[in-house]
Structure formats: C-alpha cells, structure tokens
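Worked example (supplementary).
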Amino acid sequence: MPRLVMKFGGTSVANIDRIRRAAKRVGAEVAKGYDVIVIVSAMSGKTNEMVGWVRETSKLYDSAEYDAVVSSGENVTAGLMALTLQEMGVQARSWQGWQVPVLTTGQHERARIEDIPNANLNAAFDAGNKVAVVAGFQGVSPDGRITTLGRGGSDTTAVAFAAAFDAERCDIYTDVDGVYTTDPRVCDKARKLDKIAFEEMLELASLGAKVLQTRSVELAMRYKVKLRVLSSFEEMSDAAGTLVCSEEEIMESNVVAGVAFSKDEAKMTLISVADRPGIAAAIFMPLSEAGVNVDMIVQNISEEGRTDMTFSCPADQVLLAETAMKAAKERGEINFHDVVADEAVAKVSVVGIGMRSAAGVAAKMFKTLADNEINIKIITTSEIKISVLIERKYMELAVQALHDVFGLDKAA
Amino acid sequence: MPRLVMKFGGTSVANIDRIRRAAKRVGAEVAKGYDVIVIVSAMSGKTNEMVGWVRETSKLYDSAEYDAVVSSGENVTAGLMALTLQEMGVQARSWQGWQVPVLTTGQHERARIEDIPNANLNAAFDAGNKVAVVAGFQGVSPDGRITTLGRGGSDTTAVAFAAAFDAERCDIYTDVDGVYTTDPRVCDKARKLDKIAFEEMLELASLGAKVLQTRSVELAMRYKVKLRVLSSFEEMSDAAGTLVCSEEEIMESNVVAGVAFSKDEAKMTLISVADRPGIAAAIFMPLSEAGVNVDMIVQNISEEGRTDMTFSCPADQVLLAETAMKAAKERGEINFHDVVADEAVAKVSVVGIGMRSAAGVAAKMFKTLADNEINIKIITTSEIKISVLIERKYMELAVQALHDVFGLDKAA
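After joint prediction of all chains, the assembly is encoded as:
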C-alpha cells in the first residue's frame, strides 16, 4: 500500500468536533487506498497549561522532567484520534514515542531524531491497521527517558516519519491555507503559491513566515520528502495548499518567489571605532556571548584609522547590545566614540531560486526602492535572497512595490 | 536504606501549592533516612476531563485507547512532583509505568499487576536518588501497550510497590484523616481508630466506607504491607491517621471495630414462587446475567409447594431486576405471583475480628434494634460481620444505638 503522512496541529485538534473533522480527512485518504501515519499535536492550549505548571514549580527546572510532563498532551490527542477513527469504522491505534520507538538524542527539550525503526508500525499495518496515530513532538532517549523536539517539533516528527516510511507525501494541516508570496495583511495582492522550493521556504521561514518549523523543512530537503502545507478548515481538494518540494519539480517559476519582512529590527552603530586587525572579532565576540543575535553587518570605509561599524539585531536586544559594548570598552577591548541605536527600522527581503540564473534582480530591487524615495541603510545578499534594512515607516510601501515590480500577483 | 512508600491522591496534588505541601512531607521522610517511592494520582478533575473526551468520541470505545488517554494525568503529576522535590534540594526523578516497568495483564481498564521488577528503581537509588516518583494507576501489558488498574487503582499501585520493594510502611495520603468507627456525619460520637485489622477494613470498605480501594487492602493483607491512611491537610505526626495491619499487631481491640451502613439499597420480593429443586439458580442466574448485584438473600418457609423469595440489591438496579425476573417468567423458567420492590430500606452492619471469639454479639445487636422498635427485614452474617436490612428512616437511629451499645466511642 502507498503510504501518506498527515500532521494535524493544535488548532486542528482543539476539541472533539475538530478531531472528528480531521479524522474525516484521514478516512478519505484511507478510502483512496493509502496506509496513513497521522501525527498529532496537543489540543491547543494544553501544552501552554503544562509549561505554566512546570515554571510554577521552579525557575531552573530539570529538562528531563519538563519533557515527561509536556509530552503528555500529544498522548491524549493520539488516543482520542484513534478512538474517533475507530468510531468511523477505520482500523486505527495510537502510538506514543517510546512505543514506535522514535529514538532521539538525550538533549531534553531539543532532542534530535536519530532513527525510527519501522518494524512495529509495519507489523500493525500488515495485521490490517489502516492508520497509525503517532504522538508528535516526542521521542525516547538512549537511557529510556522521554524527550521532546522543541516547539513546533511535531512538524519534524511528521517529516521524519515520511522519510522513514517512504511516504508518497507529508501533508501538514494547519490554520493557514498555504504559503503566500507575502503577508496578505500587508499587501492585498499577495497570492498563494502552488509550489515552492525547499530553499525558498527556508529563507522565508527564517525571515518570519512562520508556517513550518525550519528544522522540518531542512529534513524534508535532505530526504526529498514532498511536503504540503494546507488548512484543516477548508474543503478537501488535491490542489489545496502549497507543495514544498525540490526545485526540479517546479517547472515554471517567477524569478522571485516571495517578499519577506521583519519589523522588529534595530540598527546599532558604533561611531569612530579604532580600525585595526581583529576589531570585528573584538566587537562581535562580546555581543555573541551576551546573547545578541546579530544579523546584518556593514563597515564604513576607514578614514584616518577610524571607522563606523553598523549592525542589526532584534529590537528587544538593543539594551543588551549597548551594555555589552560599553563593558567591552571599559575593559579596553574596543575603543569607540559613541554607540547609537535606531529602533525605527525594518528588514525587507526578496527570495527566489530563480535569482541564481537571472541577472539584475538586485538592481531592480534598489531602483524600485529609490523610485519610492526609500533610503537603504544596510544591504546583505545570499545566492537566493537580497535583504535591505530601511526606515520602518516605509516597510509596507516597500513590500507592495517589490511585490508589484517582480510580478508576484501573477503565476509564472 | 529503609524504604517507605507514600501515595498522594488527587485532592492532595490538585495544584502546584498542594504538590509543594505534599513534597514537604516527602522531604521530611527523606530527612529521617528513608529512600522514598512516591505514588501520585492525577490532579483532581483531570481524569474526569479525559474520560469525558473519550466518551465524546464514541459510546463503545476501545479500552486500550481509553487507557492511553486517561493514564496521562498521572504522568503530569509525577513530573511536577519530581520537579518540586528537586527545587527543594531532594534528588528525585519521575517514572511512568512502562519505565519502571509495572508489568500487568492485558485487560484494559481493569488490569492486574503481575510483577514489578525492581532493578531500574534500585539502580536509581544506588546512584544517589532519594525519591522515585511513580505515576500511579498505570502499567504496561505483555504486548507493550499502556494499561490502567481501574478507578482508585493508585492505592493498589502503592501497595504493590511497598510489597515489591519491601517498604517499612505504605502511607496513603488522602482527604480524610483516617478510618472511623462509623461516619461522623451520622453519629457524632464516631471516633478515629488508631489501628484496624485488614479483614475489618475489607468489610468496612465493601460496605461503603470508601477510604481505600478494596483491592489494595486485599493485596496489603496478602503481602503483610503495613498500610497507613492519613490526611495530607493535617499537621505531620507519627501517630496521625489509621494503621491498617495484621490482627497480631493489634494488642487490644473492641469486639466490634465499627458500624457500617449503606442507604442506597432496595429489597425485592418474588411472591409465591413454585418451590422446587434448582429454583434459586433459576432466579439468580438471570439476575447475574442482567448485571444485578444481589447482596442478601432470604427464602421463607415453603407452604403447599410455594414460597416467597426475598433479596436485596442497589436501589438503582430495581428496574433491571424486575425486567430480568419478568423475562424469565415469560420464558417459563420460573413461576411467581408477583414481584414487589421496597426501595425505602438501608443496610446496617457491625464489623469486628473480636466477634470470632466473643459470643452474644448478634443477640446484643438484635436486642438493641428491638429496644428501639426497629424491625429487621433480612439478616446475614459472616465470621466478622453481622448485617441487617431495616427501614431507611431508622438508619441513623440504628447506627447511633449500635455505636453506643458496643462502646465504640471509647478506645479498647
């Protein structure tokens, strides 16, 4: 039998009615002839309730016990989903991580899946089971303790099962109906993509389009798992959602696949830094140690042995960054005239695998911004992405203009 | 190190504050030099919430999935208790049933513990752990699925661990402060017992004094586990609660240990039954098959080949019993003139191991009831118990009079 993995997130299994609706989708795939592995999250709100209890017991809690507590939400949903499928006449049973088993590393709260032996589930399918309902987000460590994969880990569970059981596709049911060219709340011409390449999805996800956990996309890319993101609140259809796949499977595509943005950015400038070999390390090591997530970096041309060093970081880390810089100055590690923060900035990026073969994307982007009188503060580029830092008040304008100029409202 | 088992029921772990209070009691025993096995129930209300969801999915649910869902409440408490102990500086970790492992039969919802191999917990104690927090009520079946022991099963878990780990004592923390000579709400002279014999506790429990699950007392009796029932809401003291133990450990005791009662009883009479060999079986087999819990039975002296047959059963099974009797009559299996139910009755019992060696207890009981003009409808006796069925309106009066006449307000 061909295999399918279907993953349902917390809002899709929030109560028995929704579990029943999800189970109907599973039943429809079974009717088409698939053996289905269903991965479930905890009912929405349940994980937060348990995390709250854990934090109430102690500030510096033991991660192993955190995992033992927090993993129970998925177990409840898995049992309820199996019961609902049985009630519909579909032969199903629930599996907890240790029963499959989902073998992980021993790093609690952020374990990585090492192996999923498929003997147990295959024996169940051979014995007539049509559906294996697996509790997502969890596994078992080498010493037999329960582990969890980190927030959003059920996506990773789903992709890992799709790879281990050679599934035809891995469908991720969530509360959005797919991946968009940009956020429809910012640009009303935003269009749902039918397909997107893994690499593009990774750039979009890490830039803030939080549809899929980044790790699950990386895993899907490595094992060539066809990943489909779709809404559990819409009519069923084979064309629903967005397929995340290898670029070879995308026949035609726009040069630019999407425009991403992030508005909670800040620009920090160290004014008049003594320019000497090793100065970048002297600045960015203490920032890293202080936990500041430095993103874009630009260094002005040096004049008379001094330069300005500018970088961006999340807006809520400005104080952390300032404190770290002043401390380094007091220790004599660096020397600068002043540190200036600009918290009214945003990052806008265009992403697309087509950029690798098409010239002039950067030029077109910069001209469009210039035509709209938007000043660029920092630029960074990668093979498939160009990002600029601009004044925050121009963010919506920039997104809309770039969406237009790259023709994202129209399919390729 | 000497071992102690401490079990905390749902109300004793209802929130983090209460878990903290329970953890302090555990810490105090660790400070005395004990290695402690803590058995926890689900936070009160949680099991009912999950049972509700299971019932919402389907009427005829799969017991294996019920167990997978419902067992998760204990896992949450076990983790939270371990975290709280760690925060207090006590080395502790949680154990789920399959991790210990608690090996049970495969009868879901009512599994029986078959074995508790002690290698894993002993290794943890040897490595410096002072407390093993075990999720009560659950185990693992021979084919690796989660089982539960039935409602109140955490008491049984506690006693089984006390037996398997040769614990000095098994303390059951609950919301009552011990076992009483009778219900204080019915008789204000009711007195808390310091000690009670296993056999007496069994008779009291099955008669409605629902402090301990009956199975846990049977298990404690078989393995000679000293069982103490005490409140988690009172000051700690070595004399707290009631010790349930072998009768050899009770030096002095009253002939009668307690007066039990049950008011939800009904008396059923089959009038003018054809009296022939096998008639009792012909009546009580269909009742048993219909699920009627017949308790006391009395048969009148036969006259002219016909007799009246009277029995008691729970008041809410009257309709069930009537239907079964009429069906048996229609099938020609029995013949009677009429079936009459009296739902205004109650059962009152006196219980005490001293009755085995003391004569005249029954006579004293009957005379006391007669002096109070209470008519007895049915009598049954066992080695350590005499029960009577009386009109319900006299129940309180009977309990108070018997409590007085057997001197239960005074210690032996």
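Two points are worth noting when inspecting this output. The mean pLDDT of chain A is 92. The radius of gyration of chain A is 24 Å.
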